[in-house]
Write a structure and sequence with these properties.
This protein has helices at about 20-30, 40-55, 70-85, 105-135, 155-175, 195-205, 210-220, 230-240; strands at about 10, 35-40, 60-65, 90, 135-140, 180-185, 250-255. The chain is an alpha/beta fold.
Length: about 260
Protein backbone atom coordinates (compact mmCIF):
# COMPACT_ATOMS: atom_id res chain seq x y z
CA UNK A 1 0.00 0.00 0.00
CA UNK A 2 1.43 3.38 -1.03
CA UNK A 3 1.34 5.73 1.96
CA UNK A 4 2.63 8.87 0.28
CA UNK A 5 5.41 9.44 2.81
CA UNK A 6 8.44 9.21 0.54
CA UNK A 7 10.51 12.38 0.82
CA UNK A 8 8.41 13.79 3.66
CA UNK A 9 10.22 15.56 6.48
CA UNK A 10 9.42 13.83 9.77
CA UNK A 11 10.33 14.64 13.38
CA UNK A 12 10.07 11.89 15.99
CA UNK A 13 10.72 12.99 19.57
CA UNK A 14 12.10 10.69 22.27
CA UNK A 15 13.21 8.30 19.54
CA UNK A 16 16.31 6.69 21.02
CA UNK A 17 14.37 3.66 22.27
CA UNK A 18 10.97 2.04 22.64
CA UNK A 19 7.99 3.27 20.65
CA UNK A 20 9.79 6.39 19.45
CA UNK A 21 12.69 4.36 18.09
CA UNK A 22 10.34 1.95 16.31
CA UNK A 23 8.41 4.90 14.87
CA UNK A 24 11.53 6.56 13.48
CA UNK A 25 12.51 3.31 11.76
CA UNK A 26 9.01 2.79 10.37
CA UNK A 27 9.00 6.25 8.76
CA UNK A 28 12.49 5.67 7.40
CA UNK A 29 11.36 2.43 5.76
CA UNK A 30 8.64 4.41 3.98
CA UNK A 31 11.30 6.66 2.44
CA UNK A 32 10.79 9.67 4.70
CA UNK A 33 13.58 11.94 5.89
CA UNK A 34 13.66 11.42 9.63
CA UNK A 35 14.84 13.74 12.40
CA UNK A 36 15.38 11.98 15.71
CA UNK A 37 15.86 13.58 19.12
CA UNK A 38 16.20 12.47 22.74
CA UNK A 39 17.92 13.68 25.88
CA UNK A 40 20.73 11.11 26.04
CA UNK A 41 23.17 11.68 23.20
CA UNK A 42 24.91 8.28 23.25
CA UNK A 43 21.77 6.16 22.93
CA UNK A 44 20.32 8.62 20.40
CA UNK A 45 23.38 8.42 18.15
CA UNK A 46 23.38 4.63 18.35
CA UNK A 47 19.68 4.46 17.46
CA UNK A 48 20.10 6.90 14.56
CA UNK A 49 23.02 4.92 13.18
CA UNK A 50 20.98 1.73 13.37
CA UNK A 51 18.00 3.28 11.58
CA UNK A 52 20.27 4.77 8.94
CA UNK A 53 22.10 1.51 8.28
CA UNK A 54 18.97 -0.67 8.26
CA UNK A 55 16.88 1.56 5.99
CA UNK A 56 19.28 3.66 3.94
CA UNK A 57 17.17 6.70 4.76
CA UNK A 58 18.41 10.20 5.52
CA UNK A 59 18.46 10.51 9.31
CA UNK A 60 19.31 13.63 11.28
CA UNK A 61 19.79 13.28 15.04
CA UNK A 62 20.43 15.82 17.77
CA UNK A 63 20.08 15.60 21.56
CA UNK A 64 17.16 17.65 22.80
CA UNK A 65 15.26 18.39 25.99
CA UNK A 66 11.67 18.77 24.79
CA UNK A 67 10.77 20.77 27.90
CA UNK A 68 13.05 23.60 26.70
CA UNK A 69 10.91 25.71 24.34
CA UNK A 70 13.84 27.65 22.88
CA UNK A 71 15.82 24.45 22.24
CA UNK A 72 12.81 22.86 20.53
CA UNK A 73 12.45 25.91 18.28
CA UNK A 74 16.13 25.75 17.31
CA UNK A 75 15.89 22.03 16.59
CA UNK A 76 12.85 22.45 14.36
CA UNK A 77 14.59 25.26 12.47
CA UNK A 78 17.65 23.05 11.93
CA UNK A 79 15.48 20.21 10.66
CA UNK A 80 13.78 22.58 8.22
CA UNK A 81 17.12 23.81 6.91
CA UNK A 82 18.28 20.23 6.40
CA UNK A 83 15.10 18.72 4.90
CA UNK A 84 13.57 21.84 3.36
CA UNK A 85 10.22 21.15 5.03
CA UNK A 86 8.47 19.55 7.99
CA UNK A 87 5.43 17.46 7.20
CA UNK A 88 5.04 15.24 10.24
CA UNK A 89 5.79 15.85 13.92
CA UNK A 90 5.44 12.97 16.38
CA UNK A 91 5.33 14.35 19.93
CA UNK A 92 6.61 11.82 22.43
CA UNK A 93 8.27 11.98 25.84
CA UNK A 94 9.13 9.80 28.81
CA UNK A 95 6.22 9.20 31.15
CA UNK A 96 6.08 10.25 34.80
CA UNK A 97 7.17 7.83 37.51
CA UNK A 98 4.76 5.37 39.09
CA UNK A 99 3.86 6.80 42.51
CA UNK A 100 0.91 7.11 44.88
CA UNK A 101 -0.87 10.47 45.09
CA UNK A 102 0.26 11.48 48.60
CA UNK A 103 3.91 10.68 47.81
CA UNK A 104 4.07 13.03 44.82
CA UNK A 105 5.72 16.40 45.44
CA UNK A 106 4.63 19.65 43.84
CA UNK A 107 7.91 19.71 41.92
CA UNK A 108 7.16 16.27 40.48
CA UNK A 109 3.75 17.49 39.33
CA UNK A 110 5.39 20.50 37.67
CA UNK A 111 7.93 18.31 35.88
CA UNK A 112 5.18 15.95 34.69
CA UNK A 113 3.28 18.88 33.15
CA UNK A 114 6.44 20.17 31.49
CA UNK A 115 7.48 16.78 30.12
CA UNK A 116 4.16 15.35 29.00
CA UNK A 117 2.03 18.39 28.18
CA UNK A 118 4.16 21.46 27.52
CA UNK A 119 6.56 19.43 25.37
CA UNK A 120 3.66 18.86 22.96
CA UNK A 121 2.87 22.58 23.02
CA UNK A 122 6.51 23.44 22.21
CA UNK A 123 6.76 20.96 19.32
CA UNK A 124 3.42 21.91 17.81
CA UNK A 125 4.09 25.64 18.10
CA UNK A 126 7.45 25.25 16.37
CA UNK A 127 6.29 22.88 13.61
CA UNK A 128 2.88 24.24 12.61
CA UNK A 129 4.10 27.41 10.83
CA UNK A 130 6.25 25.28 8.51
CA UNK A 131 3.32 22.97 7.82
CA UNK A 132 1.12 25.94 7.02
CA UNK A 133 3.48 26.97 4.22
CA UNK A 134 2.66 23.78 2.30
CA UNK A 135 -0.91 23.47 3.58
CA UNK A 136 -0.16 19.89 4.62
CA UNK A 137 0.86 18.48 7.94
CA UNK A 138 0.42 15.78 10.53
CA UNK A 139 0.89 16.18 14.28
CA UNK A 140 0.63 12.92 16.21
CA UNK A 141 0.97 12.66 19.96
CA UNK A 142 1.78 9.47 21.85
CA UNK A 143 0.05 9.17 25.21
CA UNK A 144 -1.40 6.08 26.85
CA UNK A 145 -4.58 4.08 27.31
CA UNK A 146 -4.68 6.01 30.61
CA UNK A 147 -6.45 8.85 28.73
CA UNK A 148 -9.46 6.55 28.56
CA UNK A 149 -8.98 4.38 31.62
CA UNK A 150 -6.75 5.38 34.55
CA UNK A 151 -3.84 3.02 35.20
CA UNK A 152 -3.05 2.21 38.86
CA UNK A 153 0.16 3.82 40.17
CA UNK A 154 0.34 6.17 37.17
CA UNK A 155 -1.69 9.02 38.63
CA UNK A 156 0.51 11.76 37.11
CA UNK A 157 0.24 10.18 33.69
CA UNK A 158 -3.51 9.68 34.11
CA UNK A 159 -3.97 13.38 34.87
CA UNK A 160 -1.49 15.10 32.57
CA UNK A 161 -1.95 13.00 29.44
CA UNK A 162 -5.68 13.74 29.49
CA UNK A 163 -4.76 17.39 28.93
CA UNK A 164 -2.92 16.39 25.76
CA UNK A 165 -6.17 14.95 24.37
CA UNK A 166 -7.86 18.31 24.93
CA UNK A 167 -4.98 20.04 23.14
CA UNK A 168 -5.16 17.60 20.22
CA UNK A 169 -8.87 18.25 19.74
CA UNK A 170 -8.35 22.01 19.96
CA UNK A 171 -5.48 22.06 17.47
CA UNK A 172 -7.41 19.88 15.04
CA UNK A 173 -10.26 22.39 15.10
CA UNK A 174 -8.01 25.42 14.66
CA UNK A 175 -5.66 24.15 11.96
CA UNK A 176 -7.85 21.85 9.89
CA UNK A 177 -8.34 24.71 7.43
CA UNK A 178 -4.57 24.61 6.80
CA UNK A 179 -4.56 20.95 5.85
CA UNK A 180 -3.00 19.96 9.19
CA UNK A 181 -4.37 16.85 10.88
CA UNK A 182 -3.81 16.33 14.60
CA UNK A 183 -4.37 12.97 16.28
CA UNK A 184 -3.36 11.05 19.37
CA UNK A 185 -2.22 7.44 19.63
CA UNK A 186 -2.85 5.77 22.98
CA UNK A 187 -0.93 2.51 23.46
CA UNK A 188 -1.87 -0.14 25.97
CA UNK A 189 0.67 -2.33 27.74
CA UNK A 190 3.67 -2.33 25.37
CA UNK A 191 6.98 -4.15 25.80
CA UNK A 192 9.25 -1.17 26.49
CA UNK A 193 11.70 -0.10 29.20
CA UNK A 194 8.95 2.16 30.55
CA UNK A 195 6.76 -0.89 31.14
CA UNK A 196 9.61 -2.60 32.99
CA UNK A 197 9.63 0.28 35.47
CA UNK A 198 5.91 -0.09 36.09
CA UNK A 199 6.23 -3.87 36.35
CA UNK A 200 9.03 -3.50 38.89
CA UNK A 201 6.93 -1.13 41.00
CA UNK A 202 4.00 -3.55 40.97
CA UNK A 203 6.16 -6.61 41.60
CA UNK A 204 7.57 -5.05 44.77
CA UNK A 205 4.10 -4.12 46.00
CA UNK A 206 2.67 -7.56 45.20
CA UNK A 207 5.71 -9.59 46.26
CA UNK A 208 5.96 -11.41 42.93
CA UNK A 209 8.40 -11.38 40.02
CA UNK A 210 8.37 -8.94 37.13
CA UNK A 211 7.64 -11.87 34.80
CA UNK A 212 4.53 -12.72 36.82
CA UNK A 213 3.30 -9.13 36.49
CA UNK A 214 3.71 -9.42 32.71
CA UNK A 215 1.69 -12.64 32.78
CA UNK A 216 -1.08 -11.01 34.81
CA UNK A 217 -1.27 -8.11 32.37
CA UNK A 218 -1.45 -10.49 29.41
CA UNK A 219 -4.28 -12.36 31.11
CA UNK A 220 -6.28 -9.09 31.30
CA UNK A 221 -5.88 -8.38 27.58
CA UNK A 222 -8.27 -10.15 25.20
CA UNK A 223 -5.39 -10.73 22.76
CA UNK A 224 -3.49 -12.41 25.65
CA UNK A 225 -0.17 -10.66 24.98
CA UNK A 226 1.58 -7.32 25.30
CA UNK A 227 2.01 -5.05 22.28
CA UNK A 228 5.34 -4.69 20.50
CA UNK A 229 6.64 -1.14 19.82
CA UNK A 230 6.48 -1.82 16.07
CA UNK A 231 2.72 -2.31 16.30
CA UNK A 232 2.26 1.15 17.78
CA UNK A 233 4.65 2.59 15.20
CA UNK A 234 2.67 1.11 12.31
CA UNK A 235 -0.47 2.89 13.54
CA UNK A 236 1.39 6.20 13.83
CA UNK A 237 2.80 5.90 10.31
CA UNK A 238 -0.64 5.10 8.89
CA UNK A 239 -2.18 8.14 10.62
CA UNK A 240 0.57 10.29 9.08
CA UNK A 241 -0.07 8.94 5.61
CA UNK A 242 -2.24 10.04 2.71
CA UNK A 243 -4.46 7.05 3.53
CA UNK A 244 -5.71 8.74 6.72
CA UNK A 245 -6.56 12.05 5.07
CA UNK A 246 -9.95 12.55 6.76
CA UNK A 247 -9.06 11.56 10.30
CA UNK A 248 -8.30 14.34 12.76
CA UNK A 249 -8.94 15.23 16.39
CA UNK A 250 -9.10 11.56 17.34
CA UNK A 251 -7.51 9.31 19.95
CA UNK A 252 -6.70 5.94 18.42
CA UNK A 253 -6.32 3.17 20.98
CA UNK A 254 -3.71 0.50 20.19
CA UNK A 255 -4.32 -1.54 23.31
CA UNK A 256 -5.47 -5.06 22.47
CA UNK A 257 -8.87 -4.05 23.98
CA UNK A 258 -7.56 -3.59 27.51
CA UNK A 259 -9.98 -0.64 27.55
CA UNK A 260 -13.47 -2.11 27.66
CA UNK A 261 -15.55 1.04 27.23
CA UNK A 262 -17.50 1.97 24.11
Amino acid sequence: MELGLKGRGVIVAASSQGIGRATAEAFAREGAQVAMCARTEKTLREAANDVRSQTGAEVYAEPLDVTDAAAVQRFVEQVTKRFGRIDVCVANAAGPAAKSFLSISNDEWRKAVEMNFLSVVHLAKAAIPYMQRHRWGRIITITSVSVKQPVPELIMSNAVRAAVVGLVKSLSNEFGKDGILVNNVAPGYTATDRLKELADARSVAAGVSRERIYELWAEEIPLKRLAEPKEIADTIVWLASERASYITGQTVLVDGVIYHGL
